[in-house]
Amino acid sequence: MTDKKPEAQGIARGLTNYGDEAFSKYLRRSFASSMGYSREMLDRPIVGIAQSGSGFNNCHRHFPEMIEAVKRGVIAAGALPLDFPTISLGEVFVSPTSLKFRNLMSMDVEEMVRAQPMDSVVLLGGCDKTVPAQLMGAMSANLPAVQLVAGPMSTGRHKEHRLGACTDCRRFWQQFRSGQIEEEEINVVERKLASTAGTCAVMGTASTMASLTEAMGMMPAYGAAIPAVSADRLRMAEETGRLAVQLIGSERRPRSILTQQALENAVTVLLALGGSTNAVLHLAAIAGRVGLKLDLKKLNEISDRTPVLVDLKPTGQFYMEDLHYAGGIPAVMRELRHLLHLDAVTVTGETIGDRIENADPWVDRNVIAAAEQPVRVNGGLVALYGNLAPKGAILKRSAADPALFETEARVVVFTSLEDLAARIDDPDLDVTADDILLLQNAGPTSAAAMPEAGYLPIPKKLARAGVKDMIRISDARMSGTAYGTIVLHVSPDAASGGPIGLVRSGDRIRLSVEKREIELLVSEAELEKRRALTPDTRHHGTRGYDKLYSKEILQAEDGCDFGFLLDDPCSHGTPGAA
Ligand code: FES
Ligand code: MG
């Protein structure tokens, strides 16, 4: 990496090409003046604010106020702030699934950061895919950058229950499906689940990615967990604006911060948080932009030595706001200091070791456990391998039922999301509580584009009989706010010809979490026969972004990035190949 010290160039950076440099400068200054800025302001260095607010994104609804606070910090530190919109990905407003557009957003961020005249950039995101997309783009553009997040929603109340999106959404929905609560009550709960601005209130994907961004050093200490509606969130925005000015011309660029050590720190924190399975994909994708690989075998190694320390939903009892008031990510990292690379440098110039040293020593042990008395002795996630998942699969063991960890059982197969929807609640479905449910053709190369459908519903007749968990396997993802014994991201996926597409109802599968194995107990010869008879389900887009996506999408172990966006395509797999 070459990290030459560029001068701050402000409005003169990266001129529009008219074949006459002086004319280009003159024209740009003239048009910039039309925005009402004085010459004094236009002579300042420029901090871009890549902001992903949108009317289609509830989590970002307080961004106007946050942008004002960033601008305050930038102006106070002597630069000119200019915000610009990028694609926004409101998790529940994007079809078929927001993951499909994460790479598109990363391209938007990368190219606009590069194309517009700014000397550093504040990335303002929050909802699940927006922060990964911004970090991916920032890693590729490698202009000095600092991440600012929306912050988590505050909890609401329903009767005696504390409510936070969206683990409680699922709990109440399950109660409704199994007939424990009536339609009238679910309608009341619906209005109370997400009651403030900010990202989902539990350790879902948004909170996990915010926390990992802090752990990898791309935001100031405490930046991840301050509640969205708190005045401290605005002060963090102001501080971020000031920091972005300090970064101008500095060597602290995204690629010098995301080192192998920083990546391992992020993985360690992920495992200690019992964080979202989606974070494995996003970290792999962010790392891939700087030529690093998130090795799932390494993840298992780290998982074996890392305790789960926080007791947050979906696996525990608390919410993200509680994590902040309990001491935040610095307090979590202090408990992990023997497992972290303390000399990893962060965007503020402090090392992770400095941050731990400077952190408030007070900690609420109800929310953040001591390393000697953890919530769980080993990490929240494990990768599984076997003939069903030659390139790996992920299980969130901290959200799963240990009674199911060593299981051999019959499998009931659903060949697509449509098949699942059509048959899962059929009273005649041949299924028992001891079976494994398996969903095919919901991976990255399928038409479904890897939605969060891996949390297969318990068949209604079993749910009504009191069954709360079953082993569920798919090439899909699961929401970070969900829980259960659920094997996800099976790779290669069914639509690209992976073995998961060769499973038939009645086969037997053996899961061993202890051995990190997932085996389909069918002979190789039989699988070969089935392969010849299995239809090709790979999605082929015919035009536009859909076509680009279907040609370039990589498998889960490469973070589902596009092949042509990787730092070094030669050292990675062929796009989309099994
Ligand atoms: Fe935006 Fe959950 S919907 S973080
Ligand atoms: Mg989510």
From TrEMBL:
<dbReference type="GO" id="GO:0051536">
    <property type="term" value="F:iron-sulfur cluster binding"/>
</dbReference>
<dbReference type="InterPro" id="IPR042096">
    <property type="entry name" value="Dihydro-acid_dehy_C"/>
</dbReference>
<keyword id="KW-0479">Metal-binding</keyword>
<keyword id="KW-0456">Lyase</keyword>
<dbReference type="GO" id="GO:0046872">
    <property type="term" value="F:metal ion binding"/>
</dbReference>
<keyword id="KW-0408">Iron</keyword>
<comment type="similarity">
    <text>Belongs to the IlvD/Edd family.</text>
</comment>
<dbReference type="InterPro" id="IPR037237">
    <property type="entry name" value="IlvD/EDD_N"/>
</dbReference>
<feature type="domain" description="Dihydroxy-acid/6-phosphogluconate dehydratase C-terminal">
    <location>
        <begin position="366"/>
        <end position="560"/>
    </location>
</feature>
<dbReference type="InterPro" id="IPR052352">
    <property type="entry name" value="Sugar_Degrad_Dehydratases"/>
</dbReference>
<dbReference type="Pfam" id="PF24877">
    <property type="entry name" value="ILV_EDD_C"/>
</dbReference>
<protein>
    <submittedName>
        <fullName>Dihydroxy-acid dehydratase</fullName>
        <ecNumber>4.2.1.9</ecNumber>
    </submittedName>
</protein>
<dbReference type="Pfam" id="PF00920">
    <property type="entry name" value="ILVD_EDD_N"/>
</dbReference>
<dbReference type="InterPro" id="IPR000581">
    <property type="entry name" value="ILV_EDD_N"/>
</dbReference>
<dbReference type="GO" id="GO:0004160">
    <property type="term" value="F:dihydroxy-acid dehydratase activity"/>
</dbReference>
<dbReference type="InterPro" id="IPR020558">
    <property type="entry name" value="DiOHA_6PGluconate_deHydtase_CS"/>
</dbReference>
<keyword id="KW-0411">Iron-sulfur</keyword>
<feature type="domain" description="Dihydroxy-acid/6-phosphogluconate dehydratase N-terminal">
    <location>
        <begin position="44"/>
        <end position="354"/>
    </location>
</feature>
<dbReference type="InterPro" id="IPR056740">
    <property type="entry name" value="ILV_EDD_C"/>
</dbReference>
